[in-house]
Amino acid sequence: MSDPENTTPYRAAEIERKWQRRWAESGCDRAGDDPADPRPRYYCLAMFPYPSGSLHMGHVRNYCISDAIARYKRARGFNVLHPMGWDAFGLPAENAAIAHDVAPADWTRANIDQMRAQLRRLGLSFDWSREIATCHPDYYRHEQWLFLQLLERGLAYRAEAEVNWCAPCHTVLANEQVVDGRCWRCDTPVTRKSLKQWFLRITDYAGELLEGLDRLEGWPERVREMQRNWIGRSHGTRIRFAIAGRDETLEVYTTRPDTLMGVTYMAVAPGHPLAVEAAQHDPRLAAFLDECAAVPTREAEIARMEKRGMPLGIEAIHPITGEHLPIWVANFVLTGYGTGAVMSVPAHDTRDFAFARAYGLPIRQVIAPGDGSVWDIENAAFVEEGVLINSGPFDGLESAEAKRAITEALQREGRGEAEVHYRLRDWLVSRQRYWGAPIPVIHCDQCGVVPVPEEELPVVLPTDLKPTGGASPLTGCADFLQVDCPRCGTPAQRETDTFDTFVESSWYQMRYASPRHDAAMVEAEAAARWMPVDQYIGGIEHAVLHLLYARFFHRLMRDCGLFDADRVGDEPFRNLLTQGMVLKDGAKMSKSKGNTVDPQAIVDRYGADTARIFILFAAPPEKDLEWNDSAVEGAERFLRRVWRLVQQCAHETVEEEAAGDPAAVRALRRAIHTTIARVDHAFDHGFGFNVAIAALMELTNALTAFTASDAASAAARREGCGVLVRLLHPFAPHLACECAELLGLGSIGKGDWPEADPAVMEADHVTLVVQIGGKRRGEIRVARGCGEEEALAAVRADVRLARWLQGMELVKVILVPDRLLNLVVRPA
User: Fold this and answer.
1) Over residues 436-458, mean pLDDT
2) Where are the alpha helices (DSSP H) in 471-522?
3) Are 718 and 649 in contact (CB under 8 A)?
4) Which of 186, 327, 385, 762 is 20 to 30 A from 745 via CA?
């Protein structure tokens, strides 16, 4: 039997330091790049972090999930790529640098060093030889090169754009950075401003990006639907309204051409050329346009605000009736969406209805409910489809038919045509910030915008500058700014805008395949070897922008010939897991709420393996996880039980003449192999790590309760302990490796995953369904392979079943072995 004196306490910190040192020395986490390597490859990637300086529990959860998957695949014999890097550019570093009076580069490097150490302390099996940081010139020089290719192909361009502008921060803000009309950083009211900006033509890929979603079967449907809505394909009609007294036209796009006969006025955005021109001669109108500069650009906010406008004093001409329609400027029309103009049909659009009511404009109903009912158009717009009325030659047509008929009529007259339209806008990639990758163009008074020659890449960002919160320090850095034009040689200036940080994060997954390849963004053979990513893990908050931009960038790189599309494919991520948030007291952890938990404190107190077990056991990965201090302690108790069990097993002795219990041995081995199957299923069907760890807890209990009294039972217990530590390895790798060494198993975690034996898992007994008189009456438990007599005896011994035989004559017994017993009876 076991000797209690041979057990030692579980010292997590000591064990974890030992194995982290061994793993680093052996390089066991490095992915192999040998083309002759026969192992199947597997690319597991968690979204890389912004180097804030300290890990939070969301990081811990994200990387524990990816590490469990990576370790499982290595143990199953896969050549695994599991890399890590840093999304190192961006406004947060710039703001922190301002607050601490340091250069963002110094702040970022220090934070990377600190977070790298924290990740290593968790024992995460990253291939650190492939580490990248997006702020390094060796990284961003390649995206500068790609930008030049896109510029040459017309896929990158510069144009005037209406943007959210924060004057104190001197930068463009994304819609998400505008909170209640104010800058999220300095709380200053945000205004609309027209600036020359750099764009990428993502709209050229809108159809392909949309259709590709149907093939991403390994992505959550929720994410795919979010992207479908963001791309927003619609089928409608582009209509040209002539402008009275002018040669020009006013174009609109509508998905409801069936309402064309109900247009009573036109509305244009404050930034529309017609409004800007009219304001030059009307001070009141000019003042109104200035007011509109403070209007938010989010559609949801616009829907809630008061609808305001002014007439421009010009009229559009209805393309079918010839009616003159007043053109208004309205604060609810956005310059950046569609044509910046809408045909207003107040009877059939709630926004148009509210505006018409506010300014006494006509409301003309042209669609009636299809069921023949009457709609009170004086009180609300009728926005559904129906049957056309008051529409001249189109009266009586249903909406679907009317859309076709009216579009065809417009097309015959050259005043419109059917058009597929996307809600998606081209990607604005320039930012008026310092801490970002420089955009590789030069502005010359003689030559205009001139691309930086490829041989002069990278355009290196000076790293010793300190931003102040106003204009980018690049605008005053002569060494960076002043340059000779590459074409004419005259003095010129570099572009001082930098790339949106989404640019860097859109292709990092590809760079990991060949992070030290200097000649191109990716080495083609490495791309074919590793891409696409087999499993991507990250938060649902990145479901649209990051993931959409990454899919777009993948296609740009494909079309620039950087990899073989037939071998790599058209998508960067084959499968996607969006993990839930970590909550405390029912709310997302936040410093402002005072409910954060420091991961380092947990690791210091309990050990990395305890933190990993808790974070993976507390909830399924895709669900939110509620922090629970007692559950953390429970995770530690479980690991201590495993440690005691393995020590006892390692030192176990039995009496040579003792007799064991063969049935107990069979039951234990059945539990062992059933556990293997359960853990396999958890990994291969949705990553139910909580279910897998629960199975390991049950096996630990079974092994602890089992008494090894002879050689056979001791061998079964030792087999169980060996299986337990191998199955535990993806979740608590330090303890698993220490236990494996104690058991004499040697190194684990590479190609040594246990296989479940179906024969062992078969139970000694089975459950038979019992039918009597053609109806299911219950079940019986019998020995596997039993015959008719034994099965019939079991039925007669069961009081609930025997009553169905009372007063009946048994005509026939039909036994389907190990499945069904059918008794044919008739009244006696």
Assistant:
1) 97
2) 478-481, 502-505, 508-511
3) yes
4) 762
| DSSP, residue by residue, 301-326 | HHHHSPP-EEEEEEEEE-TTT--EEE
Separation CA 354–CA 307 (nearest Å) = 7
The average confidence (pLDDT) of the chain is 92
Q: Answer whether 703's CB lies under 8 Å from 647's CB.
A: no
Outline where 320-477 has alpha helix (H).
Answer: 350-359, 399-412
Which H helix or E strand runs over 697? Answer: helix 689-705
319 vs 552: CA distance, rounded Å: 38
Strand spans (E) along 456-546: 482-484, 491-494, 498-499, 535-539
Given a cut of 70, is residue 802 above it in pLDDT? yes
Q: What are the strands of the beta sheet with 171-173, ordered from one edge? A: 171-173, 156-166, 191-200, 427-428
Enter the DSSP assignment of 651: T
H/E stretch holding 149 reads helix 137-153
Cα 456 from Cα 486, distance rounded (Å): 10
Model pLDDT, residue 3: 47
CB atoms within 10 A of CB 730: 28
Does residue 582 register a pLDDT over 80? yes
Q: What tokens were used for 173?
A: 């803000």
- How many Å is the Cα radius of gyration of the chain? 35
What is the DSSP secondary structure assignment for residue 484, as one 8-state letter? E
What is the spatial distance between Cα 129 and Cα 81, in angstroms, rounded to a whole number? Answer: 11
* Coil, strand or helix at 151: helix
Q: How far apart are CA 754 and CA 749, in angstroms?
A: 11
Q: String of b and e for 16-26 (b: at least 16 CB within 10 Å)?
A: beebbeebeee
